[in-house]
Structure to design on (575 residues):
């Protein structure tokens, strides 16, 4: 191949600073157009800015996520609860599961803190996406940031950690949707319904495989489902906030909403530590900024649109979640009713309190209607998250980073979907959803590890970019310039700080139920990835093709290096 044929456009600066009319073209190899991932396009670029914003806001689903994860500040649990309004053994649950952690002030101010430190994360990810819009996302960015020497290993571990985090998030979201489904039935059958864990699992399977079927066989309508999801998140959020603010016959005091943290901190931790632990609720609310970056190869203008969508996701997500948090806090009249039992869904009780008449009689229709809004947006969120997960695993498979890569890296161009990767994601999620049948504590900890795993996968490319002097990423339309280094450094420091606190026990004294296993899960994920690295990647993982496209200042670029040296470069043959 001639030098001209294999030289990437990225190295010349064209297409990355306005030099190309088509920003999706990064190189041309043997007459084949190559995108930012180093491959020819196989998926339809069907998402415009509105569609991208739709999937960003729907997958984030911020105010719904806050309501569904409110248990972190209302009671000291990981940010997910299992089910239902009424459970015959609620009062038999250990008191250690009923530790209130700051109440409404913990929710509201924790959300503000989460917005502050996630803003640095969002800025860093937006700059990466504008520079190199790859479906691999943080996996490919970590590879590039690590350079020729360390990029292969850094990207491999980043990609797998990110995938595990999103798998646990998918399981948690489907579980939340299943909880809501069961609770919608319970609203009208409280006197006759007896909760059984398998009820939730049946709903879980129906929702998961409905989402998978839509993603595979109706991919062309997925942008419309996410637009609809955006409608439910935005319009549904406005309706819910107005109803919750206007309907209560009595409201909580302003002191309860804004100043009762100490009275509602029953965790055993001092106030500052308890507050930082509760920031996890806010992090889960807005903590999905990389979700849409994995859609890069389905956008006609990814370098321009991805940063905008990330900003909308974090900004609008915070705004709606903040207003919703205030509304539900004023609607709480009996906080003790929200702390009963491991198998409760606190938002249902808040809705019941907010819509009850002056005598305390529940308005079942209003409660059901508010739950229906959440149910619709959450179902559509499950579809978008299934898309995200399938694209992450597919990106890893294309680069021979997973078992049976050739099979899982295939795409149905007719359906515009990586079918094997999507089915794999659904099968793994099916297994994860069965865990609560045997151990609710294990599932709650797996689901709660989403934030630690994903933010760790963000910190790795940021750290690599810092140590390499930010020299590998060409300027995109959104470039931080002189602010890039401090933004990256602050993002890494905040991630380390908060992830340490997110590993603390939920309450003191610590019991088996209140123990926090996030650190164990992170170590376990790294250990599993290390085993796969040694067994497979050391000799058979060449590293993604982006290495040859963007790491162009090393003499080894474009040459074959022995596997024993640990530096195998990608095959230049376009796929």
């Amino acid at each position: 191949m001639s030098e001209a044929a294999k030289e990437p456009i990225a190295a010349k600066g064209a297409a990355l600073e306005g030099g190309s009319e088509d920003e999706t073209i990064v190189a041309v190899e043997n007459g084949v157009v190559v995108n930012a991932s180093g491959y020819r396009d196989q998926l339809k670029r069907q998402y415009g800015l509105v569609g991208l914003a739709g999937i960003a806001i729907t997958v984030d689903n911020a105010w719904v996520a806050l309501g569904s994860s409110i248990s972190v500040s209302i009671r000291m649990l990981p940010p997910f609860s299992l089910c239902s309004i009424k459970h015959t053994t609620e009062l038999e649950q250990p008191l250690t599961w009923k530790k209130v952690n700051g109440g409404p002030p913990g929710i509201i101010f924790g959300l503000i803190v989460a917005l502050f430190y996630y803003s640095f994360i969002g800025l860093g990810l937006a700059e990466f996406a504008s520079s190199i819009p790859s479906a691999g996302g943080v996996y490919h960015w970590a590879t590039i940031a690590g350079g020729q020497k360390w990029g292969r290993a850094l990207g491999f571990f980043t990609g797998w950690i990110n995938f595990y985090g999103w798998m646990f998030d998918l399981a948690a979201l489907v579980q939340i949707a299943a909880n809501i489904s069961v609770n919608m039935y319970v609203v009208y059958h409280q006197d006759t319904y007896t909760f059984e864990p398998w009820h939730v699992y049946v709903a879980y399977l129906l929702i998961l495989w409905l989402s998978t079927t839509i993603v595979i066989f109706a991919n062309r309508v997925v942008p419309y489902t996410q637009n609809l999801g955006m409608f439910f998140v935005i319009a549904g959020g406005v309706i819910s906030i107005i109803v919750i603010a206007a309907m209560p016959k009595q409201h909580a005091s302003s002191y309860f909403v804004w100043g009762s943290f100490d009275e509602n901190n029953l965790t055993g931790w001092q106030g500052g530590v308890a507050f930082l632990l509760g920031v996890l609720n806010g992090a889960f609310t807005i903590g999905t900024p990389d979700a849409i970056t994995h859609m890069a190869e389905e956008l006609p203008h990814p370098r321009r649109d991805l940063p905008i969508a990330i900003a909308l996701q974090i900004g609008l997500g915070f705004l709606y979640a903040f207003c919703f948090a205030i509304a539900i806090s004023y609607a709480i009249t009996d906080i003790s009713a929200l702390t009963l039992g491991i198998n409760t869904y606190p938002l249902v009780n808040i809705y019941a309190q907010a819509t009850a008449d002056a005598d305390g009689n529940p308005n079942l229709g209003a409660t059901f209607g508010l739950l229906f809004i959440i149910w619709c947006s959450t179902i559509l969120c499950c579809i978008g998250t299934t898309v995200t997960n399938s694209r992450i695993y597919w990106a890893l498979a294309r680069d021979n980073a997973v078992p049976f890569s050739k099979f899982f890296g295939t795409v149905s161009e007719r359906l515009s979907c990586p079918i094997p990767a999507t089915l794999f994601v659904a099968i793994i999620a099916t297994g994860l959803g069965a865990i609560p049948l045997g151990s609710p504590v294990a599932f709650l900890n797996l689901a709660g590890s989403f934030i630690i795993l994903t933010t760790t996968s963000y910190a790795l490319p940021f750290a690599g970019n810092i140590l390499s002097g930010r020299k590998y990423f060409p300027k995109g339309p959104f470039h931080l310039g002189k602010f890039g280094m401090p933004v990256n450094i602050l993002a890494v420091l905040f991630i380390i700080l908060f992830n340490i606190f997110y590993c603390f026990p939920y309450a003191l004294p610590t019991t088996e139920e209140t123990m926090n296993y996030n650190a164990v899960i992170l170590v376990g994920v790294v250990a599993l990835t290390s085993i796969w690295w040694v067994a497979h990647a050391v000799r058979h993982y060449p590293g993604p093709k982006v290495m040859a496209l963007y790491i162009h200042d090393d003499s080894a670029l474009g040459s074959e290096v022995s596997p024993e040296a640990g530096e195998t470069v990608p095959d230049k043959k376009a796929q």
Notes: The beta strands are 27-29, 32-34. The chain is about 60% helix and 0% strand. Residues 104 and 257 are 5 Å apart (CA to CA).
